[in-house]
Amino acid sequence: MKIAECQEGLAAALAHTRIAAAEGTPLWREAFAVAEMARAYREDGCTFYKAGDPVNALAAAWYGAGWLHFGIASGLLVSDRDRPFCPFAGSGERLQLPLAGICGEKTRRYERLLDTARASVACTGEAATISCGFSEKVLFIAGLYAARGRDYRNAGAQEDALACFSYGHGWLDAGVTCGYFRITAHRELFTV
Questions:
Q1: Residue 90 is assigned to a structural domain of this protein
Q2: Domain assignment of residue 87, yes or no
Q3: pTM, whole model, 2 decimals?
Q4: Of 18, 60, 91, 180, which alpha carbon lies 20 to 30 A from 71's?
Q5: How many folded domains does the chain comprise?
Q6: Residue 89 covered by a domain
Q7: Number of H helices, E strands in the chain
């Protein structure tokens, strides 16, 4: 998906998303935080894009999509759309030099950040709890997109790799913010 398409798709998905929990409850506050982070990263992406920085625009938009999808998968957010927004639909955007070089550096850095972040958390719930089960799902998704990102990077598709690393980190960051994980190291990699 092209960067502008992802930003538009994310905006439309957010417009069709609502908080599932009753206002004022702890779950409502978690859902509100998740939705606001998805919106903030979408807005950051638009700002970067308008300023001529498509590399950071790409990273921000897919990071926001990770937050949104975490919110929906966790049940904190509900979408009234029949088909969910997929930021990976269609072909990715290819950036021209010198942006391709900048994208390659950022992709390598985001790969390291996601790998470090994954190794820097532990599930907060007891092993047999629903909370721990969902934590494991979040770790699985973050790991899946880390692996997919490596495959894209190895194939020379830096933009798609960066999208995967950003998306996976968005899921993990949202999980930390909502209390599914305890940070064991590198607290600076999370928005809490």
A1: no
A2: no
A3: 0.95
A4: 91
A5: 1
A6: no
A7: 6, 4
